[in-house]
From TrEMBL:
It comes from Arthrobacter horti. The chain crosses the membrane at residues 43-66, 152-172, 178-200, 207-223, 235-264, 426-454, 461-481, 493-514. Signal peptide: none annotated. Keywords: Membrane, Transmembrane, Transmembrane helix. Residues 1-21, 520-546 are annotated as: Disordered. The keyword Transmembrane applies. This is Dolichyl-phosphate-mannose-protein mannosyltransferase.
Length: 546
C-alpha cells in the first residue's frame, strides 16, 4: 500500500470516528436537554405535581388489583397488630394453611383479657400503622361491611403514596422531565411485589415504607429553605415520629434524623458569607435542638409502650436463633451473658420450638439476667462475630421475596404459597447483586461519596438525603440483626431493603445534579445560577491579560 493510500485510509478512519463521536454527543445532548436537571433550583408546586401523584397512585392500584388482588399472607404478626382494633381474621387456624394464601377479611370481634394475644405469645403491638388502619376500617364499614378489609387498606396506602409523590415532585430540583423521571423511578421501586404486596397485608411494613418516603420529602423541603423554617422542622418531626412509631427497630431512625436536623449549610455564616455572631448561631441551632429532644422523648415513649413479652422474644431470638448457632463455643457465650451453659441445648430454637429454652427451669434465670444491653456489650467485646452477622444480613437484604407467605387469595386459582411476580425489577436487581454481595457494599459507598460531593459542592438537599437514607438503612440493618437476627431475618430486613432500593433513584439524581453545569439557588446554602462575582472577576482579568 502506498503512502497516499495509507494517508487516505487513516483520514477516513478519523472521519468516521469523529462522525460517531458527533452522533454520540448529539444523543447525550438530546438526553440531557430532555431529562437532565438543567437547574438545581427546587421547582415548587406546579400542575404537573398532582398529575404525577395521581398517575403514580393509579399505577399502584392497577398493579395491586388487576387482574386480581395480591398481598402478603399473615404469619401471626397481623393478629397482634389488628386485634386491638376489635377485629378478627376470617381464616383457617392451622399455621401452614393460613400462611399459604391472603385472607383480607377481618370481622368485628370482642376480645376479653388476654384474648387479643390469641394469635401469638407476645400480646398486642403498638404501632403508628394504626393511622392507616383506622381510616381503612372506617371505609370498610362505609363501603363494604363492618370490620376491616386489607384490600381497602391497600387503596388507602396507594392514596397516601400518590400524595407523597405529589409532594416529592414539588421539592425535587430540576426541570419538569427530570423530576418526572426521578418520581417515576421511585414509583417503580415501590411497585415491586416484594414491597407493594405489603400494602394489602396486616403488617406495619407498609407504614414504614411510606414513612421513609415521607422523611425523604420532609428533609428535601427542610433543606431547600423555602417557607417558614419552623413549619419545615415540624414536617420533619411529624414524618419521623410516624416512621419511628411503626416498629421498635425503626427507633434506629432517631440518630439519623437528629444528624439531618443539625446538618444545615453554612452553619457559621450568614447569607452574605460573613461569620455569624455567637448569638445568631445559638438561635440557629435552638430549633433543631428542640425538635431533637422532642423526637428523642417520643422514641423513648414508643419503646416503653412495647409489650415486655415482645422484648423477651427479641432477646430470645438474638441469643438462641442468632448468637449461639454461629458460635464455636455456645456454652462460653451463655456463661459470658450470665446464663446457665446448659441452655445451649436450645441452640437454633425459637420460643415455639420443641426444644425451646422456655421449657427449662433455668429459663427464668436467663430472663432475669440477659438484656438487649448485655447482648450489645457482648458484640462490642467480640467484634469479630459482627463480620459473619453482616454477611448473613446482607444475604437477607438481597433475598427480599418471602417464599413462605402466599400472595393470592384462596379462591384465585393460584397455587398455595405462590408469589406475585407481576412487576419484579427490584427482585431481579437484588438477585443479581446476591451473586456478588460486594457490589451491594460498593453501591452504598458510591451513594455516600456522590451524595457528599454534591452536598459539599452545591449544597444540594438531594445529596444530603441520599447520604442519610443510606446511613438509615444500615442503622435499621444493625437494629434488626442485633435484636432478632436469623429468626425472621428476611421479613425483618424488608424495610432495610426498601430503603436501599430507594437510594438508587437518589443516586441517579445526585449523579445527574453533580454532573450538571447548573448551580443551586435559593436560601439555605443554595447559590444563584448566574456566575459568582469571583468568577466574573477572574474572567475580566483573563480578558484584560489576553
Amino acid at each position: 500500500m502506498s503512502i497516499v493510500e495509507e494517508t487516505r485510509t487513516s483520514n477516513g478512519i478519523r472521519t468516521r470516528r469523529r462522525a460517531q463521536q458527533s452522533r454520540l454527543r448529539r444523543i447525550t445532548t438530546g438526553l440531557s436537554r430532555t431529562f437532565g436537571p438543567g437547574t438545581l433550583r427546587p421547582a415548587g408546586f406546579t400542575a404537573v405535581a398532582p398529575l404525577m401523584g395521581f398517575l403514580s397512585a393509579l399505577f399502584m392500584v392497577v398493579r395491586l388489583f388487576v387482574p386480581g388482588p395480591v398481598g402478603m399472607a399473615d404469619q401471626g404478626d397481623g393478629q397482634r397488630l389488628l386485634c386491638s382494633l376489635g377485629v378478627m381474621n376470617v381464616r383457617p387456624w392451622d399455621y401452614e394453611n393460613f400462611t399459604r394464601f391472603i385472607h383480607p377479611q377481618w370481622v368485628p370481634h370482642q376480645y376479653y383479657g388476654e384474648g387479643c394475644a390469641a394469635g401469638g405469645p407476645l400480646g398486642t403491638d403498638v404501632s403508628s400503622q394504626w393511622l392507616l388502619l383506622w381510616p381503612a376500617k372506617w371505609l370498610t364499614g362505609f363501603l363494604v361491611a363492618p370490620g376491616l378489609d386489607t384490600r381497602v387498606l391497600g387503596a388507602v396506602c396507594c392514596l397516601a403514596f400518590g400524595l407523597l409523590i405529589t409532594a416529592l415532585m414539588a421539592v425535587l430540583p430540576g426541570r419538569r422531565n427530570f423530576r418526572i423521571l426521578i418520581a417515576g423511578l421511585v414509583t417503580v421501586v415501590s411497585a415491586d411485589g416484594v414491597f407493594a404486596d405489603f400494602f394489602i397485608a396486616p403488617y406495619s411494613e407498609s407504614g414504614a415504607f411510606l414513612g421513609a418516603l415521607a422523611l425523604v420529602v420532609a428533609l428535601l423541603h427542610y433543606w431547600n429553605g423555602r417557607g417558614l423554617r419552623p413549619l419545615a422542622v415540624l414536617w420533619v418531626l411529624l414524618a419521623a415520629s410516624f416512621t419511628i412509631g411503626t416498629a421498635p427497630q425503626a427507633a434506629s431512625w432517631l440518630p439519623v434524623v437528629v444528624l439531618a436536623l443539625f446538618w444545615t449549610p453554612a452553619a457559621g455564616r450568614d447569607d452574605g458569607g460573613s461569620p455569624r455572631p455567637a448569638r445568631g448561631r445559638l438561635r440557629r441551632f435552638a430549633l433543631p435542638l428542640t425538635a431533637s429532644l422532642l423526637l428523642g422523648a417520643f422514641t423513648v415513649g414508643v419503646l416503653a409502650t412495647q409489650s415486655p413479652r415482645t422484648t423477651e422474644l427479641t432477646t430470645y431470638n438474638a441469643v438462641f436463633a442468632e448468637m449461639l448457632p454461629h458460635s464455636p463455643t455456645p456454652e462460653d457465650d451463655l456463661r459470658w451473658l450470665g446464663a446457665d451453659p446448659a441452655l445451649a441445648s436450645a441452640t437454633g430454637s425459637t420460643v415455639v420450638s420443641a426444644n425451646s429454652a422456655v421449657y427449662s427451669p433455668r429459663y427464668q434465670e436467663f430472663r432475669d439476667t440477659v438484656s438487649p444491653g448485655k447482648i450489645a456489650a457482648f458484640y462490642l467485646t467480640h467484634p469479630e462475630r459482627l463480620i459473619g452477622m453482616a454477611e448473613r444480613g446482607i444475604e437477607g437484604v438481597l433475598t427480599p421475596e418471602l417464599g413462605y407467605l402466599g400472595s393470592y387469595p384462596q379462591d384465585s386459582g393460584h397455587q398455595p404459597s405462590e408469589k406475585d411476580r407481576r412487576f419484579p425489577p427490584v427482585l431481579f436487581f437484588f438477585t443479581a447483586l446476591r451473586a456478588f454481595p460486594v457490589l451491594y457494599l460498593a453501591l452504598n459507598l458510591a451513594v455516600i461519596l456522590v451524595g457528599l460531593a454534591l452536598a459539599s459542592r452545591h449544597g444540594s438537599a438531594v445529596g444530603r438525603v441520599a447520604v442519610l437514607l443510606t446511613l438509615a438503612s444500615w442503622a435499621q440493618f444493625w437494629a434488626v440483626m442485633l435484636s432478632g437476627g436469623q429468626a425472621e431475618i428476611y421479613k425483618d430486613l424488608i424495610v432495610t431493603g426498601y430503603m436501599s432500593a430507594l437510594t438508587v433513584p437518589l443516586f441517579f439524581a445526585s449523579a445527574c445534579l453533580l454532573g450538571s453545569r447548573a448551580r443551586t439557588a435559593g436560601p439555605g446554602g443554595d447559590q444563584s445560577s448566574q456566575p459568582s462575582s469571583r468568577s466574573r472577576r477572574r474572567r475580566l482579568n483573563s480578558d484584560v491579560t489576553s
